[in-house]
Design brief:
alpha+beta, single chain, 8-stranded mixed sheet, 31% strand
Length: 170
Protein backbone atom coordinates (compact mmCIF):
# COMPACT_ATOMS: atom_id res chain seq x y z
CA UNK A 1 0.00 0.00 0.00
CA UNK A 2 1.31 3.41 -0.83
CA UNK A 3 -0.23 6.70 0.23
CA UNK A 4 0.62 9.77 -1.80
CA UNK A 5 2.19 12.68 0.00
CA UNK A 6 1.20 15.14 -2.75
CA UNK A 7 2.97 16.72 -5.72
CA UNK A 8 5.58 18.49 -3.59
CA UNK A 9 7.05 15.14 -2.44
CA UNK A 10 10.35 14.38 -4.20
CA UNK A 11 10.40 10.97 -5.88
CA UNK A 12 13.89 10.27 -4.52
CA UNK A 13 13.00 11.22 -0.92
CA UNK A 14 14.17 8.16 1.00
CA UNK A 15 11.85 6.20 3.25
CA UNK A 16 12.63 5.36 6.84
CA UNK A 17 12.53 1.59 7.40
CA UNK A 18 10.50 0.67 10.47
CA UNK A 19 10.50 -2.93 11.74
CA UNK A 20 7.18 -4.05 13.24
CA UNK A 21 6.73 -7.05 15.58
CA UNK A 22 3.32 -8.70 15.59
CA UNK A 23 4.00 -10.79 18.68
CA UNK A 24 1.74 -13.77 19.29
CA UNK A 25 1.13 -15.84 22.40
CA UNK A 26 -1.54 -18.52 22.32
CA UNK A 27 -4.50 -16.87 20.57
CA UNK A 28 -3.53 -13.25 21.28
CA UNK A 29 -1.42 -10.46 19.79
CA UNK A 30 0.55 -7.91 21.84
CA UNK A 31 -0.21 -4.21 21.31
CA UNK A 32 1.29 -1.24 23.13
CA UNK A 33 -0.07 2.21 23.87
CA UNK A 34 2.20 5.08 22.88
CA UNK A 35 3.29 7.54 25.58
CA UNK A 36 1.02 10.51 26.38
CA UNK A 37 3.41 12.94 24.64
CA UNK A 38 4.87 12.91 21.13
CA UNK A 39 3.48 11.91 17.77
CA UNK A 40 0.28 9.87 17.91
CA UNK A 41 0.20 10.17 21.71
CA UNK A 42 -2.05 7.54 23.26
CA UNK A 43 -2.52 5.59 20.01
CA UNK A 44 -1.94 1.84 20.00
CA UNK A 45 0.82 0.19 18.00
CA UNK A 46 2.74 -2.99 17.49
CA UNK A 47 6.21 -2.91 19.07
CA UNK A 48 9.11 -2.00 16.82
CA UNK A 49 11.13 0.91 15.58
CA UNK A 50 13.56 2.40 13.11
CA UNK A 51 16.18 0.19 11.53
CA UNK A 52 19.78 1.22 12.21
CA UNK A 53 22.26 1.46 9.29
CA UNK A 54 23.55 -2.01 8.38
CA UNK A 55 20.97 -3.76 10.58
CA UNK A 56 18.67 -6.43 9.16
CA UNK A 57 14.93 -6.08 9.69
CA UNK A 58 14.81 -9.20 11.88
CA UNK A 59 17.75 -8.01 14.00
CA UNK A 60 16.00 -4.65 14.37
CA UNK A 61 12.83 -6.35 15.58
CA UNK A 62 14.71 -8.39 18.16
CA UNK A 63 16.61 -5.29 19.40
CA UNK A 64 13.60 -2.97 19.49
CA UNK A 65 11.37 -5.45 21.33
CA UNK A 66 14.11 -6.07 23.90
CA UNK A 67 14.60 -2.29 24.38
CA UNK A 68 10.88 -1.45 24.56
CA UNK A 69 9.48 -4.44 26.47
CA UNK A 70 12.42 -6.51 27.84
CA UNK A 71 11.18 -9.68 26.11
CA UNK A 72 12.72 -12.06 23.59
CA UNK A 73 10.98 -12.88 20.32
CA UNK A 74 11.67 -14.88 17.20
CA UNK A 75 10.50 -13.42 13.87
CA UNK A 76 8.63 -16.18 12.01
CA UNK A 77 6.85 -14.78 8.97
CA UNK A 78 7.15 -11.52 7.04
CA UNK A 79 3.96 -9.80 5.99
CA UNK A 80 3.83 -7.41 3.05
CA UNK A 81 5.73 -4.14 3.57
CA UNK A 82 3.59 -1.01 3.82
CA UNK A 83 4.66 2.38 2.43
CA UNK A 84 3.07 5.45 3.99
CA UNK A 85 3.66 9.17 3.63
CA UNK A 86 3.14 11.47 6.60
CA UNK A 87 3.64 15.22 6.29
CA UNK A 88 7.40 15.67 6.35
CA UNK A 89 8.39 12.00 6.40
CA UNK A 90 8.02 8.81 4.43
CA UNK A 91 8.11 5.42 6.09
CA UNK A 92 8.13 1.77 5.06
CA UNK A 93 6.76 -0.64 7.65
CA UNK A 94 8.29 -4.12 7.63
CA UNK A 95 5.90 -6.31 9.69
CA UNK A 96 6.83 -9.75 10.97
CA UNK A 97 4.68 -12.21 12.87
CA UNK A 98 6.83 -13.15 15.87
CA UNK A 99 6.66 -15.72 18.64
CA UNK A 100 7.27 -14.73 22.25
CA UNK A 101 10.26 -16.75 23.44
CA UNK A 102 10.96 -15.43 26.94
CA UNK A 103 9.83 -12.84 29.44
CA UNK A 104 6.73 -10.85 30.30
CA UNK A 105 6.31 -7.42 28.72
CA UNK A 106 7.59 -4.53 30.84
CA UNK A 107 6.46 -0.98 30.09
CA UNK A 108 9.86 0.52 29.25
CA UNK A 109 8.77 2.69 26.29
CA UNK A 110 4.97 2.64 26.37
CA UNK A 111 2.23 3.50 28.86
CA UNK A 112 0.27 0.24 28.50
CA UNK A 113 0.48 -3.16 26.82
CA UNK A 114 -2.19 -5.78 26.34
CA UNK A 115 -2.79 -9.09 24.62
CA UNK A 116 -5.83 -8.92 22.32
CA UNK A 117 -7.61 -11.28 19.95
CA UNK A 118 -6.61 -10.40 16.37
CA UNK A 119 -10.15 -9.50 15.22
CA UNK A 120 -10.30 -6.99 18.09
CA UNK A 121 -7.37 -4.98 16.68
CA UNK A 122 -9.91 -2.89 14.75
CA UNK A 123 -11.29 -1.65 18.09
CA UNK A 124 -8.07 0.24 18.90
CA UNK A 125 -6.83 3.51 17.43
CA UNK A 126 -3.56 2.94 15.54
CA UNK A 127 -1.56 5.46 13.48
CA UNK A 128 -2.85 5.73 9.88
CA UNK A 129 0.10 3.79 8.42
CA UNK A 130 -1.17 0.66 10.23
CA UNK A 131 -4.59 0.41 8.57
CA UNK A 132 -3.66 -2.08 5.82
CA UNK A 133 -1.21 -3.87 8.12
CA UNK A 134 -3.95 -4.58 10.66
CA UNK A 135 -6.23 -6.07 7.99
CA UNK A 136 -3.42 -8.28 6.71
CA UNK A 137 -2.40 -9.38 10.23
CA UNK A 138 -5.98 -10.35 11.07
CA UNK A 139 -6.29 -12.29 7.83
CA UNK A 140 -2.98 -14.10 8.31
CA UNK A 141 -3.58 -14.97 11.96
CA UNK A 142 -7.12 -16.18 11.24
CA UNK A 143 -6.08 -18.89 8.77
CA UNK A 144 -6.73 -22.40 10.06
CA UNK A 145 -3.75 -24.58 10.79
CA UNK A 146 -3.16 -27.32 8.21
CA UNK A 147 -4.15 -30.81 9.29
CA UNK A 148 -1.16 -33.00 10.18
CA UNK A 149 -0.43 -35.65 7.56
CA UNK A 150 0.92 -38.26 9.94
CA UNK A 151 0.86 -39.13 13.68
CA UNK A 152 4.44 -37.87 14.20
CA UNK A 153 3.60 -34.44 12.75
CA UNK A 154 0.51 -34.31 14.93
CA UNK A 155 2.75 -34.36 18.04
CA UNK A 156 5.18 -31.71 16.75
CA UNK A 157 5.09 -28.08 17.78
CA UNK A 158 4.05 -25.82 14.92
CA UNK A 159 6.51 -22.86 14.82
CA UNK A 160 4.06 -20.57 13.00
CA UNK A 161 1.26 -19.51 15.37
CA UNK A 162 -2.06 -18.98 13.66
CA UNK A 163 -5.42 -18.47 15.24
CA UNK A 164 -8.66 -20.17 14.29
CA UNK A 165 -11.49 -17.63 14.09
CA UNK A 166 -14.67 -17.88 12.04
CA UNK A 167 -14.88 -15.78 8.89
CA UNK A 168 -16.50 -12.38 9.35
CA UNK A 169 -20.27 -12.52 9.36
CA UNK A 170 -20.41 -16.01 10.93
Amino acid sequence: MSDSGGPDRAADDPRTDVAIAIITRADRVLICQRPPRGSFAGFWEFPGGKREPGESITDCIIREVKEELAIDVTPLHALRAVDHDYPGRRIRLHPYVCALIAGEPQLLACQAAKWVAPPDLVCYQFPPANEQLIREAIEYLSRPLPAPSDPVTARCFCPTPRLNYPASGD
